[in-house]
Amino acid sequence: MSERIHIFDTTLRDGEQSPGAGMDDNAKVQMAQQLDRLGVDIIEAGFPIASQQEFESVARVAKAVKNARVAALARSLDKDIDRAAEALQYAKRPVLHTFIATSEIHMKYKLRMSPEQVLDAAAAAVARAKRQVPRVEFSAEDATRSDWEFLAQVSTAAIEAGADVINLPDTVGYTTPDEIRDMFRYVIANAKGAEKAVFSSHNHNDLGLAVANALAAVEGGARQIECTVNGIGERAGNTSLEEVVMAINTRNDRFQYECGINTKEIVPSSTLLSMITGLTIPFNKPIVGRNAFAHESGIHQHGMIANASTYEIMTPDSVGRSRSDLVLGKHSGRAGLARRSAELGFELSDDQTDQLYERFIVLADRKKEVYSDDLRMLIVDLHNEEFQTYHLEELRTFGEDPTVALVKLKCGDEMITETATGDGPVHAASVAIERIVGHTGRLEEFEVRATTPGKDALGEAHVTVRFGERAYRGSGASTDIIASGIHAYLNAVNKHVAYLESKKLNGNEK
Ligand code: KIV
Ligand code: ZN
Known about the structure:
By secondary structure, the chain is an alpha/beta fold.
């Protein structure tokens, strides 16, 4: 039987550190439940000491997850460890993940601690965590720029103090496959008690090597891979879950391991994440990008018709995608719509299906053919609206230079109308929205693209709006691109409003 590689998903913690990827509690719970369906072994839910809100969301994820272990992060500090243990109290199988940096550069400039102090702090943190939670992971931050002998010493101390997992992260995405393989071999050979621990690899993608480095770490003895859906994360992101899992599955002749992932849940997980964060997936992204199974050249198409394995190394079906993209027309029924939505990974309630059906009929009246991506954007809009405080009821724009916009928003039972002028319709309408909600943001990114081919395509807009220190992604879709831009802007504004509300409910950040 093949050896097992544990998949540790950190989409909700390291992934959320992607600029603009902030998720509210509901979104985190929804994503955690999807990760559980995907079959990951561990879900890292967050960093409880960061704020009261973060603490609450870790606790809610801990309660909601049925199968996977749930991890919470803590620096090697007493207050962090106690807070993480408290947030994990409802988890069926909690993991306390504590870390401290071990590279000379981090110890000297960031921690201002000597190697001996770091060694003591690591052992004390693991021991404290182990008294409160049965399973403890220790990470030597910036391991790939640390002295290997010191890494072996710290790993020995952490294992003696009770660590079950030793993680050696490539925090800055600096290492190479040969180097990380040798590092794992060295530390596993030289840390006392290494056979009692699972060694883990956590890689960042600054040089585009995160997946290759994870696979090389496994060759060196790692048996846990830390990764995120769609590869989101700090800077250039983390090891992409879908890429590393499908590399192991597809090249099982080279990587004779088994990951326990239900690969048919890969595309639904990727789509859900993109929907709730507003982070779009590049068309050419392996496995989950729109073009990952598209065959453009005539020679390739001809080969595919003769036998799909001529140009495909895995089937779309194996990762939860359907090959035929044409979904429904005007006469497709409500049941067909619900079935197609479920195939895309969205289980809708009867009420949601009714609302989706109404919008679908309006769209199908305008476009003859409705594709999966059209449906996905209709669902995104529906989902966004469900959690929004402000809903766009009416939008009218007039003239140029300046443009005047009239915006009517609904908030509970109240209708609020405002007009504003600006340099074009998006500017004017966003000023009107800001007057209504009373918060002014800075539009940092504005991206519009056609959801599907054809002149009658839906236009989807994605924006990043900054309010002080926090940036939010917003998405919206419409056959009118001005309206899609305004929906996206309002979506980001609503995320900020929801953040302020939850801050009020939970008290201030620490
Ligand atoms: O990149 C890193 O070093 C981390 C640790 C906290 C595991 O995310
Ligand atoms: Zn990281």
